[in-house]
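Final report, closing paragraph on structural work. Over the funding period we assembled a curated collection of sequence-structure pairs, and we close with a single example.
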Amino acid sequence: MADADPKISGAAKTDAIVVEDEAAALFRVNRRAFTDPDILAREREHIFSTCWLYVGHASELKKPNDFLTRDVGGRSLIFNRDRKGTFRAFFNVCPHRGAAVVRDKAGSAISFRCFYHGWAFNNNGQFGSRFEADTYPPDFNSDGCANLRAVPRLESYGDFWFVNYSSSGESLGEYLGGAKEVLDLIADHSEVGMEIVGGTQEYSIRANWKLLVENSFDGYHASETHSTYVDYLADATGYGAQMLMTNRPSLSRGVELGNGHAMIEYIAAWGRPVAQWIPTWGDKGKAVVDAKRKRLEELHGPERARRIARANRNIVIFPNLVINDIMSLTVRTFYPEEPGRMNVQGWALAPVDEEPDFRRTRLENFLEFLGPGGFATPDDVEALESAQRSYRTIDAPFNDISRGMRRAEKYHDDEEQMRVFWREWRRRVEGVA
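Its predicted structure, as stored:
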């Protein structure tokens, strides 16, 4: 049954989930997208089984034989380096009877052994068990049936590693499109490399995964939803809260990066350990920041150095890799367990050679704003769960994502970046270009 909306022109009144009317500058998303199990099934087939999905950062596997296990797109994976140091990814499923082969979150091992029947595998995935004569035919495993099954495709851009469960389709480089330039900016935070710091933050949200996509680069909600943090930031920086809440930052823009990827970029008042000083860091901190800025300019020139040091970015790489390059640098993914529940994983990323004081500041920023118990995440979780609960009210069927459609240049607090995501979602799930 079609959901009617009197504000949408007759030509655009359909039962489609995503409805865009350029002439009227209206963009609507039917709330069934967040509640319908059949839509989630289509997403599993057309998004999570065919897109490039982030599996981990190279720094998490520093040495040969290191491994970690991670759930990616509904599959449990072993992401590891073999004895020669080659990066690999296997389905964490024993080919014998299907038990999980590796049950530890991370570690170092030259081989893996299933606890159920003891089948063993080298860390390059090759079957390594020995049996008495006549237990199996002489040519057993000649077709590789007893080896760990590798994911169809594993590729990296810089130190960011991705898997794809489809054996065909575009390469990772083609898929990332304009997002590669943003990943390069992040890599340029340090001339000696970046690393994941500490462990994984893990939590669940009782809301649809696409709500967190929208929220992750939604510049419109910040001053309202996070007003407590705005007040805190005003005290910490010396700026007035009203100025922070009402003045649009410079370099305010929403940017399409191709293939459903998008970001917002803007200047904000908080300190950035990469090279934006605030008074609470004192004279010693200012000297360190000034030296960092000078080195960035030597390496990359004044304009690129300014973007690295001062410009904040919230990026979504379709479908669900979020990188928040703000007062700290956060990597986050999330996957649906059901239409109204997702599991979230987050990590802090930092320069390998960062000074101890600034590393501490970075992690404090990470925890106090983006951590599950910080200023921002509990606010966001409440907003997303509140929306999810309200979607049971079928008499209000559409979300509006039209803000800024008439503007030629999109601001960071417009909603173009969300429309970019939904257009790609529509192309993949609804088959509409």
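The two ends are 23 Å apart (CA to CA). Residues 1-6, 8-13, 240-247 have pLDDT under 50 and may be disordered. We thank the funder for supporting this effort.
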